[in-house]
Amino acid sequence: MTLQVKKIRLSELEKFANSKEFQNYEVIPISTIRAQSYLANPHGHPDDIVLYLGFTDNKLVAFRSIFADTLISEDQLIRFGWCSGSWVHEQHRRLGYSGQLLREAYNDWDKKLAFTNYSPHSEKLYLKTGLFQPIHQFEGARLYLYAKTTKLFQARINPVTAVLFKITDFFIELIVNVFGIFYKPKTNSTVLLSEIEKPDEACYQFIKSNPANSVFKRREAELKWILEYPWLTQQKNDESSRYPFSSFSGNFYYRTVKVKRDNKLLGLFIFSVREGHLKTLYFNLTEDCTKEIAAFLKKYCLSNKIEHITIYKKELTDQLLSRKFPFLYAKRYGQKIYSTFQVSNKKQHTFQDGDGDLFFT
Question: What percentage of the chain's residues is helix, strand, coil (to nearest 5)?
Fold first, then answer.
C-alpha cells in the first residue's frame, strides 16, 4: 500500500500541534513540550522540516521527527538534523515505511542527518539503509547501586517472582546502606564541589571565557534552551498515553555542579536524574578533577539512593571502574554517534555525554 507523506515545517509546527487534525490522531507524532522545544531551538530555521507523517487511507501509520543542530568539522560549521523519534504502527511494520520517511528527510536536510541514543533494534534499521557511518564511539560505563530488580527484570515478573524481587531489593538496599557507612573518599581537600539547580551567571561567564573544545558547540544559548525546554514533564496528561515516546516522568531533574579551588571557578558539569537513573551530560573544566568528581558522584548516589548511573566520559569512566566501591556492579557501556556525512576531527575536538537528544530526556 502506498504511503502518502505529509511534511510539517518548523514555521507550521505550532499551528499544526493545536489543530483539530492533530487532536484527532490516535497516536500523536510529537508531544506539546517537545514541540515547544523545537520552536525554541536556537539552530532552528522556519523552513526546517521537523515532522514527516505517513498516511494510508487517511490514517497516520508512521512518523519521523528531526531537529536542527550544528557541529564543527575542522574549522567548518556544518548544519544538520538529528533523527529523534521514529514510529510505525504495529500493523504496518516491515513495509518499508520508516525507511521511506528517512529517505525523504535525507534529501530535505541536504543529505546531512545524524543519530545516537538508540536501541539495538533501531540501530539495525538505520544501518540497514547504508546511509550512516559512525563518527564517534563512547567508551562509557553503567554502574549499579540501589538497583531495583523489579525494574531490571520487568518481563519476568509474576506473583512469585514479584515477592522474590522485593525481598532481593530489600537486601540490596541494606547492603548498600552498610557500604555507605564505610565509604570514606580520599580527595584533594582544596577542590570544592557545590551543587546548584541550573548554571548561574558565573557558570555562563566561565563557559564564555573557556568554551569547551567540543564537536557540538553547546554554549550558553544551547544550554539555556535545553535546560528550559526538556522533553519530559512531571505533570501527567492525556498525551503520555498517545505519544509513543517519553513525555512524562514522575521524577526528573537537572543539576549543575560548580568546581572551585580557593574560590576560583575551575569549571562545571551537568547531570540529570530520571526515576533513579543518573546520567552525566556536560563537562567544562580547566583542570583535571576526575577523582573529585568521581567522589562527588558516589556520595550523591548514596545520599539520594540512585539506582544506577550512566557515564560516557572516558577519564571518569576509568576512574570509577578502577575503584567501583560502593557500587555493587559495573560494566562497560557505550554507544556511537552516526552521521550520513563526513566529519573530520583532526584537531581532536571532544564529544559530550549529552550530545544529540540524550540531554533532553
Answer: 35, 30, 35
184 half-sphere exposure, CB direction, 13 A CA radius: 1
Closest among 328, 307, 309 to 147, alpha carbons compared: 307
pTM for the full predicted model: 0.92
Q: Which residue has the cell 555542579?
A: 257
Cβ(230)–Cβ(361) under 8 Å? yes
Contact 251, 275 (CB under 8 A): yes
Domains defined for the chain, CATH in brackets? 4-135 (3.40.630.30), 140-334 (3.40.630)
Condensed to tens digits (0 to 9), the pLDDT of residues 293-344 reads: 999 999 999 999 999 999 999 999 999 999 999 999 999 999 999 999 999 8
Give 148-157's long-range contacts (Cβ < 8 A, gap of 24+). 148/276, 148/307, 151/276, 151/307
Query: Alpha-carbon distance 252 to 1, whole Å?
Result: 41
